[in-house]
Amino acid sequence: MSRFGGAGFFLGSILPMHSVGTVAPQSRHFAEALPLRSGASLRDYTLVYETYGTLNADKSNAVLVCHALNASHHVAGVHADKEKSTGWWDNLVGPGKPLDTNRFFVIGVNNPGSCFGSTGPMHTNPGTGRIYGADFPVVTVEDWVDAQARLLDALGITQLAAVLGGSLGGMQALSWSLRHPDRLRHCIAVATAPNLSAQNIAFNEVARRAIITDPDFHGGHYYEHGVVPKRGLRVARMIGHITYLSDDSMEAKFGRGMKTDTLNYSTQDIEFEIESYLRYQGDKFSDYFDANTYLLITRALDYFDPARDFDGDLSAAFAGAKCQFQLVSFTTDWRFSPARSREIVKALVDNKHRVSYAEIDAPHGHDAFLLDDPRYHNVLRARFENIAHEHEAEKPVLRGVAV
Amino acid sequence: MSERKDMELIAQLVPEASRVLDLGCGSGELLALLRDTRRCSGYGVEISDDNVLACTKRGVDVIQLNLEDGLAMFEDQSFDVVLQLDTMQHLRNTERMLRETARVGRIGIVSFPNFAHWRNRLHIAAGRMPVTKALPYEWYDTPNIRVGTYADFEVLAGKCGLRVLDSFGIQRGEAIRSLPNLRASVAVFKFERT
After folding, report:
1. Is any Cβ of chain B less than 8 angstroms from the Cβ of A283?
2. Exposed, middle or buried by CB within 10 Å (0-12, 13-18, 19+), for A217?
3. pTM
4. Alpha carbon of A76: minimum distance to chain B alpha carbons (Å)
């Protein structure tokens, strides 16, 4: 500390940002069935989660980070003895980072139906003793939020300082404010939407058809056949990936770049670098992602529509929310465009809820929410600093004093 | 609103505990003042990333929008007061924004540089566009694309069907109530829809 002399005031900005380091997932089993929106229930399930930072004495500094389509509970840090295992939001979460683990207790939970450890379609159905496969119940954003709430119950956390999520994770953050309005003080929803547009559902449907029509899919029971519908997964990932990037960023990254200098006049071999990139992304994805999980999660995206229970009136849907909101969108995100975030902001303004909205002029499309654009990260940093001051100021002054 | 005294003069026009929408709220200084001293709540609207961040740091709720795109997000008469301070002169569609201000707020308050201040008149009389403290730019680089006078605004207010509730000039942090069009570099109007 001393070599910084009197510059202590600036320490936060000049110290290098650190990683939370090596982390290990934990898991918790829930014997009580989780009732689902569909009317079905999830019996005997396990949630895998990670935590970073320290829960304070009054358990007021917890922040839940909700994951999107292909991510997991592994938000930050690295897993021991595993290369390239950096958490998916490591640039945001860690000591000295915008979501500062020196101040907050951060929780990442893998949602049920996913393929990273929590109970999903590749696990055994306690009702039949067989692997779930296609029989895994359809889960919704609301179901995930309820599952996350049960994990908080188990951890003894009654109210979160904040729920944070991007994209589908942002939908979960919004849903938290509606389903459990007393259990969070801040909702931070990035690059998200109040529901999917027809175009968005269309992309999801193309991805699902690619998987379902793969001969190795076997009606979703491919585990029993010892195969994986990799072709479908690859195509699903390729189309998804196109929608996460902006036209400009794809142009800047690949343009019309070719694999070789001369044209090969082939319809099937890779000619353009963008083809090579998409195939690589598809191959990589099909090695680790589960096809049934892809179907389940895209369906959860399609179904999310909090206004549906209020005759399509989003303002009515948000009437019961009690927390403060921070919305962020990115100008070149055409999958979850700024106009969709503005719909949410309008609904919150209509209800006189406290809301701030930043529209970041970033070139990277939907992917921008995972990148570290300083304008974006500075807004989240400022927001979390205020949240930290809030719960630090609220600490009872007379704590421990006998009266 | 860079001058603290100017800001305090305008804050006094805002009723206690009002719901306030501040269009072009800058760093959120006035909203913070209204929150801390007059129990007001509401939002700022800003286009600049730096100002959005400054508001966020202050804990002032801010919505990043381009005012040129209109105020479709805000319902009719949904705020007690809509402020448009030192902002109007930067907007291409001044008249529409003034009508929008009156639509969204039960009371509107605007301030803008008064082009008819005597110093400006001297500059013009000498054959040059004014460059003063209130209008510090050259004609070719000014962000003030709509330069009007205190007297001009009275005409526009009438055309837009606004009833002026109060108006005055500000010069060196003091309210100017006699001959404001001549004596004040800043014009302030408080109005409602008729």
Report:
1. no
2. buried
3. 0.93
4. 25
